[in-house]
Specification:
This is Multi-ubiquitin domain-containing protein. It comes from Methylorubrum extorquens (strain DSM 6343 / CIP 106787 / DM4). InterPro entries: Multi-ubiquitin_dom (IPR027802), UBQ-conjugat_E2_E (IPR025701). With 267 residues, this protein is of the alpha+beta class. The chain has 2 domains: 84 residues, Ubiquitin-like (UB roll), CATH 3.10.20; 120 residues. It is built from 6 helices and 16 strands. The chain has a 6-stranded mixed sheet with strand order 1-3-2-8-5-6, sandwiched between helices. Strands 9-10-12-13-16-15 form a 6-stranded antiparallel sheet, with no helix packed on it. Strands 4-7 form a two-stranded antiparallel ribbon.
Length: 267
C-alpha cells in the first residue's frame, strides 16, 4: 500500500523536459526505408492515429520527483539542471545501483531507460572554504525511504545511538516565519521496532521562541549531546493513528510542519 501511495504522489509531481528540440530534429530514418509508394514506412510505424509522430520518452527519478526526457543519454550536469539546480557545480549527483550509490561526474554520460528504473540523489556540496566538514554519524541504518527523504532535504543529518536511545538529527533545519531562530537542529527519537512503532514528538536545539512573545504550549525537555533540547509534546490520537505501512520520517516531518504553523495560527 505504501508503494502505491508514493508512486501516485510522484506521478502527480512529474515534470517533462521541453520536447521542441527532439520534435525539430530530423528523424534518423528520413530518406531511408522508402517503399515503392514513396512513403517512409519506418516513420509510419512511429505515427499516431492523428498522423503525428510519436516521441519515445525516457523516465528517471531525481530525489523524489519523476522526470521524462526525449533523450536517453544525459550528463550529470544535464540531470542537475533538470532537477532545478541552477549551479550544478555546487552539487554532487549519486546514482543508486542495487544497494550502492555511484557518484556521477558533471560531464559523465548516463544512459536512462524507458521504464523509469534509474534513480538519482542530489547532495549540496559544502561551500565553506578553509574549514573541514564536520564528521557525520551513522550509528544505525534507516530504511531506504527515510534515507531518501533526509537526503532530499539537502541538510546534514545523522543517526545517533546514545544511552540506548536511537535518534535522528537534522542539522540546520529551516523554521517557518513566526519563530526565532530561523534555523535550528531538529531531533527525532525512534522507539524500538520502528517503523512498526511510531515516532512521537520532536525536539529542537537551540530552542524555538515565538517572535510575537507568546509562550509555546506543552513543552518538555530531553538531555542529549550534553544539551537540553526543547521537546514539543504533540501526540497522535485515535483519529490520527500511526500507520506502519504508510508513516515514516517523511510523514512525521509533515506533522512537525503542520504543528509549527498551527502554533502561530497559520494552519
Amino acid at each position: 500500500m505504501k508503494k502505491v501511495r508514493v508512486e501516485r504522489f510522484r506521478l502527480n509531481r512529474r515534470h517533462s523536459i521541453n520536447l521542441s528540440t527532439a520534435l525539430a530534429a530530423p528523424h534518423p530514418s528520413r530518406g531511408k526505408d522508402m517503399g515503392n509508394d514513396g512513403h517512409n514506412h519506418h516513420d509510419r510505424d512511429n505515427e499516431g492515429q492523428d498522423g503525428t509522430r510519436k516521441i519515445k520518452v525516457y523516465r528517471f527519478r531525481i530525489d523524489k520527483t519523476e522526470y521524462e526526457s526525449p533523450l536517453p543519454d544525459l550528463t550529470g550536469r544535464d540531470l542537475l539542471v533538470i532537477a532545478g539546480k541552477q549551479h550544478p557545480e555546487r552539487y554532487k549527483l549519486l546514482q543508486k545501483i542495487g544497494g550502492a550509490m555511484k557518484p556521477v561526474g558533471l560531464d559523465e554520460v548516463v544512459h536512462v531507460s524507458d521504464n523509469g528504473q534509474e534513480r538519482f540523489i542530489t547532495l549540496p556540496l559544502d561551500q565553506t572554504e578553509g574549514e573541514q566538514a564536520l564528521p557525520t554519524r551513522r550509528d544505525f541504518t534507516l530504511p531506504e525511504g527515510d534515507r531518501e527523504t533526509l537526503d532530499a532535504t539537502g541538510l546534514r543529518w545523522e543517526t545517533v545511538q546514545e544511552m540506548g536511545v536511537a535518534r535522528v538529527v537534522i542539522r540546520g533545519y529551516p523554521v517557518r516565519p513566526g519563530y526565532a531562530p530561523g534555523r535550528t537542529d531538529l531531533m527525532l527519537r525512534l522507539l524500538p521496532g520502528y517503523p512498526s512503532s511510531q515516532i512521537d514528538m520532536w525536539y529542537f536545539h537551540p530552542p524555538l521562541a515565538r517572535t510575537d512573545g507568546a509562550p509555546i504550549r506543552a513543552l518538555v525537555s530531553d538531555v542529549f549531546e550534553g544539551k537540553t533540547w526543547q521537546g514539543w509534546s504533540r501526540h497522535r490520537t485515535g483519529l490520527n493513528p500511526w500507520r506502519p505501512d504508510i508513516d515514516d520520517i517523511g510523514t512525521h516531518l509533515a506533522v512537525v510542519e503542520h504543528n509549527l504553523a498551527k502554533e502561530v495560527g497559520a494552519a
